[in-house]
Amino acid sequence: MTDESAGQDIRLYGLSKYYGDFRALDDVNLHVAAGEFLTLLGPSGSGKSTLLMALAGFVEPTHGDIFVGGSSITALAPEKRDFGVVFQGYALFPHMTVAGNVGYPLKVRGLGKPEIAAKVRDALDLVQLGHLATRLPKQLSGGQQQRVALARALVFSPKMLLLDEPMGALDKKLRHDLQLELRQLHRRLGRTFVNVTHDQEEAMAMSDRIAIMRAGKIEQLGAPRALYDAPETRFVADFLGKSNFIEGKVTGIDAGIATLDTADGPVVHALGTRPAGIGDSLLLALRPQKLMLGPGPNSRKATVETAIFLGTHAEVSLRCASGLALALNLGIENAQALPAEGTTVELGWDPAATVAVRPD
Fold first, then answer.
1. Helix-then-strand count for the chain, H and E
2. pLDDT tens-digit readout, 235-265
3. What number of other Cβ atoms are within 10 A of residue 319's Cβ?
4. From CA 133, how far away is CA 121, in angstroms rounded?
5. 110 contact partners, CB below 8 Å, separation of at least 6
6. This model's pTM is above 0.70
7. Which among 154, 109, 162 has a CA at the least distance from the CA of 127?
8. Model confidence at 336, in pLDDT bands (50, 70, 90)?
9. pLDDT band per the 50, 70, 90 thresholds, residue 1
10. 3-230 falls under which CATH superfamily?
11. Domain 242-352: assigned CATH number
12. Structural domain boundaries in the chain
């Protein structure tokens, strides 16, 4: 699979899809760079699968346009778009061997048997399944079936690969292993990958950028680390990972540090690139791993409700005097000495640990 398989860029302009009064997609504008791995992430009903199916040609937009490589494809039939597509259920033909399944797209394109055999061999080698070419799908594990579906989607050297929850049917460990393999495959091939998932860890592990979707719109778009460290809204902060939320009113500002009056006492917060003024109400997001046991610039007393050891870390649920619930994650170095349930502990966090987000 050579340079001919280099990716193409995608541009969506005002893409909308209505089903009666329901807006599955609502004026979506998006640019996906050539060779990029973009993940559409969101809860059920957010529009991510509708957007992917519109790209594939299986959903006709109500409004808007789709450009790939500088040309509009909005009116093209799915088979004319020449994209590789992998579905959650793999959609393998049960009566065909692995080689037959992978070679099917080439057969319908009219290639000769020797050329099909060579391309199938290359595609199966790419996903490390050459030794299983003669088996039937029912003789394969879930992970092997997923690799066959990938090989079939890649065998005709598409410029783009569309993945619709391709690992949703796999167990957690296998899903993790295949996430890494798919990421490495993307890097080797250099094609444009667009992936749909509701799994935050999958999106973080594989993507160059993530588009977080909500109610048919893109809520926020960016690199995984940027989205995690600087969510713009409560929805993003709560959907991508977990967050604690603290509400307060700004009572003072000094050298970029704001003091807020909250239900559990004053909080100091580093404003960073999001300014605020005296009297402004702010909603702060605080990641559980940035909350610490012991005093800090921000200190609180809270009662331990649950404390669970999970091997790599521990999760502690706490309740402040105001009733505010807080989640605390302890790394492995501190996870062995968990506070007892029902005890009162002191918590602290740094002013730079919080991020001001827009309420929903």
1. 10, 20
2. 999 999 899 999 999 999 999 999 999 999 9
3. 13
4. 8
5. none
6. yes
7. 154
8. low
9. very low
10. P-loop containing nucleotide triphosphate hydrolases (3.40.50.300)
11. 2.40.50.100
12. 3-230, 242-352
Q: 185-220: per-residue pLDDT in tens?
A: 888 888 999 999 988 988 998 999 999 999 999 999
Q: Residue-wise over 1-13: b if at least 16 C-beta within 10 A, else e?
A: eeeebebbbbbbb
Amino acid at 334: N
The span from the CA of 211 to the CA of 228, in Å, is 12
DSSP output for 299-349: EEEEEEEEEEE-SSEEEEEEEETTS-EEEEEEEHHHHTSPPPTT-EEEEEE
Q: Do domains 3-230 and 242-352 have the same CATH topology?
A: no
What gap in Å lies between CA 7 and CA 19, rounded to an integer? 32
Q: Pull the structure tokens for residue 11.
A: 């541009």
Of 355, 129, 121, nearest in space to 238 by CA: 355
Q: What does the DSSP assignment read for 211-260? A: EEEETTEEEEEE-HHHHHHS-SBHHHHHHSS--EEEEEEEEEEETTEEEE
- SS3 of the chain: helix, strand, coil, percent, to 5: 30, 35, 35
User: In one letter, which amino acid is 336?
Assistant: Q
